[in-house]
Design goal:
By secondary structure, the protein is an alpha+beta fold. The chain has twelve helices and 14 strands. It folds into two domains: 8-178, no CATH class; 233-383, no CATH class. It has helices spanning 15-25, 45-56, 70-87, 96-116, 123-126, 144-151, 163-178, 205-226, 237-242, 316-321, 342-350, 376-383; strands at 135-137, 156-158, 233-234, 253-254, 256-266, 276-279, 284-286, 293-300, 303-310, 324-326, 330-332, 339-340, 355-364, 369-372. β8 (293-300) and β9 (303-310) form a beta hairpin. α1 (15-25) runs antiparallel to α2 and α2 (45-56) packs across α6 (144-151). The protein is elongated, with a radius of gyration of 29 Å. The N and C termini lie far apart (76 Å).
């Protein structure tokens, strides 16, 4: 019969540290698996790591021969807690010193288990002290559990009925280990020198570098072949007068990342029946603190034009809601504030009278995005 020691997870965990690290993880983007592909109900990596570690490591009370008193057991338990508290920190995700400390504890508990089950009839097969048990997750989803099991030194096997989940797991768990420690082989981007590259490529850094190189190569090739179809935008002196933040780009031609459009329909107000009014759920372009940008419509000469402002809007509620009145297809006329019912919008669309108007341009700056007012030439070009 198999002898199983009581595990740490059965007794206690440093829940406060685990919960705080898991909550903080939600705001982390760079390097997080969630940036690879969105997946609903994704498990926090911190919690997954802590749970797997505490499932594999024995609680000190399981070894009364080593920790003879409750005080000694609690002292050892607190030491394990400190390992978990370090382990769940995002900054330690790739910290080999912290990870190796956790792996050593897992190995130690596993060897205790192997020794306890030395008389098991299948001990040679099931309790090999030189090989950790494999980790199996038949419903892997976003892959948090098998990824963290792999990070802690276990051989991971993951599967799922959803092919998207399978693809995510392949990209995170199956493919990177095959290229671990290997140097990149992709074409070095122009303006970069070979001697600037590191000579050692630990883990999957070589694979990551190849992804970057081939991504740059594809971008360069696309620009060569179809770049002429996507005009750049020039920052003129007139633009810098209204926008001091554009001063350092004066006279430069910037690459356009995106053209932001607004759907339009004819106004239901008879006084403005000839005006195509916008259906916009928000005029906010960027809500990042210190980088706020928004569209401000200017009504003039029986029509309107869009301008782009930076900073916090004077009427933040109006900017956030755009021309939308409520849930669903319910808007208001920009010219007269007349409500636009959903029936009117559907009728215009079915009659082929729904159109679009360029609302803003997003350009690539120096490690930043620039939001610019629409240029007439760009509107014609994009329509063409």
């Amino acid at each position: 019969m198999t002898k199983a020691a009581k595990k740490l997870i059965e007794v206690a965990l440093p829940l406060k540290a685990i919960n705080e690290a898991s909550a903080r993880e939600k705001s982390i983007r760079h390097g997080h698996p969630s940036t690879l592909h969105l997946w609903w109900a994704r498990r926090p990596l911190a919690a997954a790591r802590a749970v797997i570690f505490s499932q594999m490591v024995d609680d000190p009370s399981a070894h009364p021969d080593i920790f003879k008193t409750e005080k000694a057991q609690e002292k050892e338990r607190q030491r394990l807690f400190r390992i978990i508290e370090d382990l769940v920190q995002w900054e330690n995700t790739t910290n080999e010193k912290v990870l190796q400390q956790a792996r050593d504890e897992i190995w130690q508990s596993w060897r205790y288990t192997c020794a306890e089950n030395a008389d098991h009839p299948r001990a040679k097969e099931l309790f090999d002290r030189h090989k950790l048990p494999a980790f199996h997750d038949p419903f892997a989803g976003g892959g948090a559990l098998p990824l963290e099991a792999q990070r802690l030194g276990l051989e991971s096997y993951a599967s799922d009925l959803n092919p998207v989940a399978v693809l995510i797991c392949k990209a995170m768990i199956e493919i990177p280990p095959k290229f671990a420690g290997r140097p990149p082989v992709g074409p070095i981007p122009k303006d970069e020198k070979q001697n600037e590259m590191p000579r050692e490529w630990p883990g999957a850094t070589g694979l990551a570098e190849d992804v970057r190189r081939y991504g740059q190569w594809m971008r360069d090739e696309a620009e060569k072949r179809i770049g002429h179809l996507y005009p750049q935008i020039e920052i003129t002196p007139e633009m810098t007068k209204e926008r001091p933040d554009l001063q350092k780009y004066a006279g430069k031609k910037l690459t356009v990342i995106a053209w932001l459009w607004a759907r339009t329909v004819k106004s239901p107000n008879p006084a403005f029946a000839n005006v195509d009014v916008p259906l916009v759920s928000t005029f906010m372009l960027s809500t990042k603190r210190g980088k706020e940008a928004y569209v401000e419509p200017v009504i003039e000469n029986g029509g309107y034009r869009f301008t782009v402002k930076v900073g916090k809007p004077k009427d933040s509620a109006a900017s956030k809601s755009g021309t939308k009145l409520s849930r669903g297809a319910n808007f208001q006329c920009l010219m007269s504030n007349t409500p636009i019912a959903s029936d009117h919008i559907y009728g215009e669309a079915n009659a082929g009278r729904m159109s679009a108007r360029l609302m803003a341009i997003v350009a690539e700056g120096e490690r930043e995005r620039l939001y610019l007012a629409p240029a007439t030439a760009h509107g014609y070009c994009c329509r063409g």
